[in-house]
Amino acid sequence: MKKRWWILGVVLVAVGGYLSYARWLKPGNAGAQATEKVTELVVVARGALQNSIEGSGNLVAAQERALAFGSGGRVTAIYIVEGEHVTAGQPLVQLETTSLELSVKQAEASLAKAQVQLAATLSGATEAEIAAAEAAVSSAQASYAQVKEGVSTERLTQLQAELDLAAQEVQQAQGNYDRYGDRMAASLQDATLAYERAQFTYDIAAEVDSYTLTSVWSNVEQRQADLDALLAGSTEEERATAELGVQQVEISLQKAQR
């Protein structure tokens, strides 16, 4: 009987020891019991909240546009600075205009010449032009008559003198044209035609053969055809060509003025 109580007492002590270990000495329970609450006091202040981010890179424009000029040239002035806001039509740079101004003047001169030619084509031949054409026919016919009859030495000397005089008049007319411009164009043309007639007449007189005789008569026919064309007036094709010439020069002038 005493032995049973002794065994029961040992069992009770073992159970009590295990329960005490599980409750008080087990590591997880011991840490949980030892945990303490920590409270931190912070003073609140009123102010601006600022956050900053640091980084590196290259700045690029949001929009870019390449500039192009209608013609090349040296830049003489820049009217804006980098980063400046510009509007449509605002001048940005200035190019040297010397060559451009020269191109405009040349185009204007070409236009004036084309307009004169158009006016002459539309209005028909003047009395002076008809008279000159008739004189050319008469001269060609006279040259042909001389070729058929033959030419003496005295006649050749006279023709040479006339040729030299015509050459001097051409030189004088050319000098006046270089000095005074288009105002002397008609005089230069008349002097040139007179020299050509004198040269032609002398050449015929210097050497006469059947071939030369044929050539002289061809000249008569050509001069007569020129006179007939003047008397008939300009054709529709000639007028259209003259008008087209003016239009083309006007386009060239507009391009030069841009």
How would you characterize the largest beta sheet?
2 strands, antiparallel
As a percent range, the share of strand residues is under 5%
Q: Round the mean pLDDT to the nearest integer and report it.
A: 76
Please report the distance between the alpha carbons of the first and last residues. Answer: 134 Å
Question: Unreliable stretches, pLDDT < 50, 5 or more residues?
Answer: 29-34
Strand order of the largest sheet: 1-2
Radius of gyration: 56 Å
Helix and strand content put the structural class at mainly alpha
Layout of helices and strands, plus pairs?
Layout: H1 2-25, H2 27-34, E1 75-78, E2 93-95, H3 98-123, H4 127-149, H5 153-180, H6 185-206, H7 210-232, H8 236-257
Antiparallel strand pairs: 1-2
Give structural notes:
The protein is mainly α. Among the domains are: 98-124 and 248-258; 126-247, no CATH class. Helices cover 68% and strands 3% of the residues. The chain has helices spanning 2-25, 27-34, 98-123, 127-149, 153-180, 185-206, 210-232, 236-257; strands spanning 75-78, 93-95. Strands 1-2 form a two-stranded antiparallel sheet. The longest helix is centred in the middle third of the chain and has 28 residues, at 153-180. Residues 29-34 have low confidence and may be disordered.
